[in-house]
Design brief:
Number of helices: 7
Number of strands: 12
Helix content: 10-25%
Strand content: 35-45%
CATH topology of the largest domain: Aminopeptidase
CATH architecture of the largest domain: 3-Layer(aba) Sandwich
Order of helices and strands: EHHHEEEHEEEHEEEHEHE
CATH superfamily of the largest domain: Gcn5-related N-acetyltransferase (GNAT)
Oligomer: single chain
Distance between the termini: 27 Å
Shape: globular
Structural class: alpha+beta
């Protein structure tokens, strides 16, 4: 049957949970909080989903995500088949080798190899009076913080409503943040994101404390917790390993120009 646009959450979830550690972001995007911003494509044979690709349009630039566990063939075929119905430009998070479906000449920017990591042990709760939960009332100081500490991050202010953002304050100044990109109690997954420390406060274990605090809090409701990180980000990797994360996969992140598109996005 080949390409299908998928609409049944249950069928999509049944496929994704077979390799749940690789698919945390996609599983989370099945949640109603994200669902309306998603378009799902599947390569289907005999009513069986063999690969899935997700186009997420919740940010300024749409993002395409597709990950395979062992065999890339069906994922590659799916990406080739959806090129005409994808936007003219998009970010892509793709398992190694899949970017070739669009041609190396159409990769506008390559952000390098990234790791997928999963929490293997629950860290101890961090009782530090400098840590407090962040809310929408803190939006301006959060935005000011990221403009200095993490200027190119993908921060969706809606995520503050999850109450899963924590800040570290020193002398009244926001020194660090830990937060999430994905959170779904229904699908039992969370993905950490937007974790950063202000340049004036680095080297003081603030990132570790905030990450541990967040993970302990998430673990009260969620059993599958993951994150993405650049493979060359040694400081972040050291922090995440110390917190209890282990590498479970790799993917390439890039900005793609799609001359095959027949759409205007």
């Amino acid at each position: 049957m080949g390409l299908q646009v998928l609409h049944n959450k249950s069928n999509i979830h049944s496929f994704l949970k077979k390799s749940a550690e690789l698919q945390i972001y996609l599983i989370g995007d099945l949640d109603d909080f994200y669902w309306r911003k998603t378009t799902w494509y599947g390569f289907v044979e005999k009513n069986k989903i063999l690969s899935v690709a997700l186009l997420y349009s919740g940010m300024e630039m749409p993002t395409l995500l597709s990950f395979y566990d062992k065999n890339p063939d069906y994922s590659y075929k799916l990406l080739v088949s959806i090129k005409p119905i994808l936007p003219e430009r998009f970010y892509a998070h793709l398992s190694p080798g899949l970017t070739s479906a669009f041609g190396t000449e159409n990769i506008m920017e390559n952000y390098g190899l990234h790791y997928k990591m999963v929490l293997r042990k629950i860290p101890s709760d961090i009782n530090d009076p400098c840590i407090r939960r962040l809310s929408s009332a803190d939006l301006q100081i959060i935005q000011d913080f990221y403009s200095i500490a993490y200027p190119h991050n993908w921060f969706d202010r809606r995520m503050l409503a999850t109450k899963k953002y924590f800040g570290y304050f020193r002398d009244g100044k926001l020194a660090g943040i830990s937060g999430i990109h994905v959170y779904s109690k229904k699908y039992n997954v969370a993905a950490l994101g937007n974790i950063a420390t202000h340049p004036d406060f680095r080297g003081q274990q603030i990132g570790f404390k905030l990450t541990s605090k967040l993970c302990f809090n998430l673990s009260e409701k969620i059993s599958l917790i993951g994150l993405n990180v650049r493979s060359d980000n040694e400081f972040a990797l050291k922090c995440y390993h110390k917190t209890g994360f282990e590498i479970v996969g790799e993917y390439e992140e890039c900005l793609i120009k799609n001359p095959f598109s027949k759409l205007s996005f």
